[in-house]
Amino acid sequence: MSEDREPVVDPAAAAYVYMQVADHVAWQIRAGRLQPGARLAGERDLAQEYGVSIASIRRAVQELRERGLVTTLPAKGTFISEPKPDA
């Protein structure tokens, strides 16, 4: 996948759907479409937007947390993290 082209979520592709969603959100963060502190849409809204199950969205958000790109606050939502300084 090219870094400058927006990734597409394709359920028929030979890649996990949750990883495709996580990669798409990560791309939006890198492209500046999602700014630090911005709140991600809710699970249901994201599932509808991407045409995937809520379980796939939950796993994608978990992947984004593991990458350090988002932070989830219970009863508040999931927010784009501040970028980490390069080590």
List keywords for this structure.
mainly alpha, globular, single chain, 2 strands, 87 residues, 40% helix, two-stranded antiparallel ribbon
Describe this structure as you would to a colleague:
By secondary structure, the protein is mostly helical. The protein has helices spanning 17-30, 43-50, 54-66; strands at residues 70-73, 77-80. It has a single domain (17-80), classed as Arc Repressor Mutant, subunit A (Orthogonal Bundle). The chain is built from three helices and two strands. A two-stranded antiparallel ribbon has the order 1-2. α1 packs across α3 (54-66). The model has no long low-confidence stretch (mean pLDDT 89).
In short:
The protein is mainly alpha-helical and 87 residues long.
In the residues, how many domains can be counted?
1
Strand fraction equals 5-15%
How far from one another are the termini?
A: 25 Å
Shape estimate: globular
Query: Can you give the mean pLDDT?
Result: 89
Chain-wise SSE layout:
Blueprint: H1 17-30, H2 43-50, H3 54-66, E1 70-73, E2 77-80
Antiparallel strand pairs: 1-2
Helix pairs in contact: 1-3, 2-3
